[in-house]
Amino acid sequence: MDRLQIFDTTLRDGEQSPGFSMNREEKLKLARQIEELGVDILEAGFPIASPGDLDATRAVAAEIKHCKVAALARARQEDVDAALRGLEPAAKPRLHVFLATSDLHLKYKLRTTREQALEQMIKMVRFGRQHCGEVEFSAEDASRTDIGYLCQVVLAVVEAGATIVNLPDTVGYSTPDDYAEMFRNIRAHLSAYPDVILSAHCHDDLGLALANSLAAIDAGVRQIECTINGIGERAGNASLEELAVAIHVRQNRYPVATGLQLEKLYPTSRMLSAITNISVPPNKAVVGANAFAHEAGIHQDGILKNPLTYEIIVPEKVGVPARRLVLGKHSGRNAFRARFADLGFTITDVELADCYRLAIQRADEDKEISDRDLITIIHQVRRGQSPASAGSEAGTTANAR
Ligand code: KIV
Ligand code: ZN
User: Fold this and answer.
1) What's the pLDDT score for residue 200?
2) How many angstroms separate the first and last alpha carbons of the chain?
3) Is 71 helix (H, G, I), strand (E, B) or coil?
4) Do 49 and 183 lie in a common domain?
């Protein structure tokens, strides 16, 4: 099976988005966790951005030894010098040089020509390669770049020494078909360099970052750039946890292997939320609070009979402590019976019918039924039916929680 390299850019693309900046200690803590998660490359920062970014990049580079550490630089001498300084302590350094290639960016942002930009890219990749064992080149806004010029750029940077070529969908504009086609064109153009790794880097402006990343894998890409919780510029990057689970669950469709430890996905997501104080939306795939929660009666009944009915992966596999059967007005009797059993109450069908009626009434007012509510309800029902039976089982209020 082909190996897919996972390039994590949480500490760079993720960190540069509003609300997610982290200090040196926070970056170090998260870097250690991301390394344990099993990524292949960890992008530590953009050292030219600030002295703090340079310092944090150096700290991460000094500590992270199992995976490669990358530092970002525009194709400019000062940037590359700063990135190389950041990477000095790294055991496995990767210099990541980028420059925009679309006419829009060349004309309005960089105010340069295709020819001048090409010269700059070649010069900086060649220089970088003299000072770093591994150079990745990214063609910013690749998905909106003229394909003829993009072919020219890719061949030139490979000849200058880049061994990884990343073609980002910088503004999240591409569709899966467009993105895959671009990679197929580029791969054909690089037929003399079969060992060059093509890489995808997708933004989620149209909600297509994961779909585009998967389409890229289909088209032969063997490195995906992504972030924990999908954080990143604007709508974010492709989410690492979604990618990991998609590949795991759909091995038949994407026969590639990664070094990821899936059980570390949820703890890593939680650590990022805790550090940045920004929680993930409840409906976020894989790591959201509702990703393994079930309220509808039909779903709860299915889950209790066989979890595969409504879950494509068991929560423990991605490190989520347990699935949640949420008791609310959509829940069915079986879910109530199961929760009562968890709380230590074996209830009769008649008691269940009464409890269910009271619980649904309460759910209409309060939305969600808590364990405390259930205990109150069962005591109420039992008191009504047979006062002596309340609290006679293992499930008293005190010992049931
Ligand atoms: O989105 C992008 O194009 C980037 C590059 C700098 C890799 O983040
Ligand atoms: Zn990006």
Assistant:
1) 99
2) 47
3) strand
4) yes
Same domain (yes/no): 154, 189 = yes
Give the ligand 1 atom nearest the CA of 166.
7
Q: In this structure, which residue's CA is closest to atom 7 in ligand 1?
A: 138
- What's the CA gap between 221 and 278, in Å, rounded? 32
Residue 217 forms part of a structural domain: yes
Top pLDDT among 4 and 326 is at: 4
State whether 50 and 141 are in the same domain: yes
Dist. CA 269–CA 290, nearest whole Å: 14
Same domain as 156, residue 230: yes
Q: What's the 223 CA to ligand 1 centre distance in angstroms?
A: 14
Of 349, 347, 350, which is closest to residue 375 (Cα–Cα)? Answer: 347
pLDDT, mean over the chain: 94
Q: How confident is the model at residue 385 (pLDDT cuts 50, 70, 90)?
A: low
Q: Which ligand 1 atom minimizes the distance to the CA of 233? A: 1
Choose which residue among 8, 9, 170 to substitute to test ligand 1 binding: the one with the highest number of ligand atoms within 8 A of its C-beta.
170
Residue numbers of the domain that contains 333: 294-389
Q: Per this entry, what is the length of the chain?
A: 401
Question: Does pLDDT of 315 surpass 70?
Answer: yes
CA dihedral 153, 157, 163, 164 (to 10 degrees): -40
Q: Residue 191: CB partners within 8 Å, gap ≥ 6?
A: none
Do both 342 and 240 map to the same domain?
no
**Mean pLDDT of the region 29-36:** 98
pTM of the model: 0.91
CATH number at residue 164: 3.20.20.70
Count of domains forming the chain: 2
